[in-house]
Records
---
Amino acid sequence: MTADIIVIWAGILGLAYLAGAGLYFEKTGGSSRRASPSDGFGRHVRPLPVRIRRSR
């Protein structure tokens, strides 16, 4: 019974570790700039279009 509980806890902690690592790399790996807390998880900000001044 004790070995079963240890295996269950090891599995739970392993999954929690993988979930934390996934969130960390999703937050930091997608962009070259530093991720701010306001960006949220999985949100990608669309770049603003560049306005070009045309001479007449």
Note: The mean pLDDT is 78.
---
Amino acid sequence: MSEFSVRVDIVHTETKLGDTLCVLPLIMQMADEYAMAIHVAGAFAEPAKALLSRLPIRFAACNHSSAVNVRVDIQAAYNQGRGLNQHMAASICRLAGWPLPMLPITIDLSSAPARLPSGIVISPFSGSRNPWYKAWPLDRWLMVVRHFAASQGEPIYVVAASGENAVPFIHAGAIPLVGLGLPEVLDVMRQATLFASIDNGLSHLAHFGNVKRHLLLYPELLPPNLVMNPRAHVLRGRPEHIQAETVIAHIDTLLRTETGLMDRNMQPACSP
């Protein structure tokens, strides 16, 4: 008799961090149900693996046929999420035939000390092939950095992947954090007095990694729930319509509050 095992195969033309993190709630449900580690293959973002040391996930190939095989089609989940105004993580579970998770979702992701003073952390970059609908204009980001570099007695960090151009932010007064591993990035985000981002992989990391103070510039083109971080203070609109003064005002307000959080109740991962 062959050994019992469970396999999740992720299908997509890209391997993006946000998509990868949105599959984790399904994997964790399956691990709890079957009381075993889940074998994962396919379009799983390699940098995310460093976050998973405490999770029941394996990437080594199975030496036998799996008793349970689940195929996760990221594009199908995206399409369904848009149609139902439903979070990507919920669409992934729905298509696999599993219960929809409740938002917000906290996953036991691994962090590692970055040993940096806390400060304002921004994540302005997107790894999407077509980021035009979510990317906020560079000159407005620089206005925000200049304002807080001049008015706050704490560092302003810009998180960037290798190959992303953080030089303009240096000239504006920010400290670039380029090419850090995701466990260190998560630590920086958790220690931040405020984390500000567009919709990108790190906005999903803020959600699933339980980052407390997050300003999310959410693209108006997407349905409100599709890539939502329920813990975040959300500023939704077309990027070109969101002014730097508006973002500065929102950050100022959040920095003045005790927790930087909006008062939110637990909510389902899809609209009624």
Note: The CA atoms of residues 32 and 172 lie 47 Å apart.
---
Amino acid sequence: MTNQKENNYDIFKKVFRKYLPVIVVLAVILSVVIIYKLKRKQPTYLIKNTVKVEEDASLLNRNLKISKVQQSDDFYNKIIAEDKFNEIYGKTQKSNKDEDKRKWLDSVVSVESSDKDDENKLKYTISTLDKDNAKKLCELYFNTLNSCYKGVQTQYYKTEIELLTKKIEIMKNEINSLGLSKESNISAAYSDALNELANAKVFINTNSDEYIKGDVSEQLVGIGKKKYLEGIAIAVLGSAFVVLFIGFIAEYVKERIKVSHNTRG
């Protein structure tokens, strides 16, 4: 058993010395190929945006989380229907299917989950090879998100107006029929409902177009030295493994054949 291990070790040393020049040549060739491909790879433009609901928008329904709007089908349907989106999308993609557009959008936009302490904050990063496209997509993403957020808020207050109007009418009839005083509980509730209705109507009639704000930062990510070193390491180790493995098998078979002939002789 020991002799077999020693024999295998001798074969390995023999293979290593014999095929070392092949390993070096192959490693150099692979390194050149990898470095060439890395140099041709375009840098990636990252645009990060931290979106947050305006603090001074006191009339907003705070139960509506910005993350829920971003995850909605309405948001995706609106953004992939935009001409600007299709212009950017069409530069690299051919499919016109909505599901493929949505998959592509998800592939270039990375969204962080909302912080539990502040669920009305959303962080997303857009990553493309073209700086101009990244900027346009970031602006489009933000504007569509703001539009959808405003739309959902508006629909909420329209519903509130309908409900409050009915509620006020019922309470008004009750007060008149029972002759209740202004100090009664139902009169106080009636007054609160009137205030809520007024706030809802103020929101509907407000001309503000922006309820969220963003904090944008840009970053150019190129190919660093680490990537080149990793590529060279892969080339060297890969070459050594392949050549030594094939060489060892070949030499081992030769040795076994030689031993077999000697034994027979």
Note: The chain is about 70% helix and 10% strand.
---
Amino acid sequence: MAFDFIVMRPDTDLGLFQLMRKKPIQYMNRLFKPSESILSPGFPKYWTYNVPKEERGFYQKVDLLHGKHVLKNSLWKYYHGNNACTFSIEECYEAFENLSIDLGQNALNFEIDHVEVGVYFHEDFDLIPRLKAAYKNSLFDAMKKSKSREIYGWHLQLTQFEIKIYDVAKKNILAKDVSYVRPGSYRFEIKYFDRNFLRKHGVKKGADLFDMESPIYSHWRQVTGGINFRLFPQLSPDMKTSDIKNIMLYYSDAYSEFNRVLKQKGGGKTDLARVNESVKKSRALLNPKINLNELLLKELNLNLLLSEKKGT
């Protein structure tokens, strides 16, 4: 378990940026550049710090129009350079410490407006094409790069959070990211983007993320355990076409309706028997290799149990 993309707000005196000038301002060990657009008093609408390509820092924006200063980046990538690896809760804490030194302020005191809580895992087979998922009867949607047909993951957008599971290597390839990612690298995340929801679940500041009894982790477990993951079978090329059709029907969303309609008609027993016979013959091939719910919950619990930062 660790934190990927995160949005934080330091307690910044915005009056320091209410200046009628076009020169950069030095703040938190960074040079903030003014926007071209200005507010009616004559000072810039916002000031920004853009991270140089050779650095792993946080993008920053002091928004005078909306009265806030935000920092955005993947904490995972800030620490490791990529997010296709394990990232322990101890390393997360160290990342906050490094950021505090980097910026000259205690990042654990920054307010949290958005955080992705996730786990990394590795499997030696192509998971995403064989996977379907649903949460509270809502099916996950495919994750695709714009104008591409290739699916690299599945996600479900809800009102207060989003659930995602995806192939990191495929995502990078589609994004033309040249950094190497080990094939079979997968990420599962719950993205919490509702500020009020985070507050109700015990997260206001960075330090709250290291309270291992925080309600946010109870929520993460509840949601993850309640997802219906279905893995379609890996079928042998030597299998009869009729058996393949029957098995795919059995595993499809249409099977329950197919079953209901045939029973309603009072016939179709032979058709159902054929489907069940195909499934029975191939049962050894059809058993899923992994239980995703157990795997993901185990990864989270392992990190929380091993943490020494409880109640920090």
Note: The first strand starts at residue 2 and ends at 9.
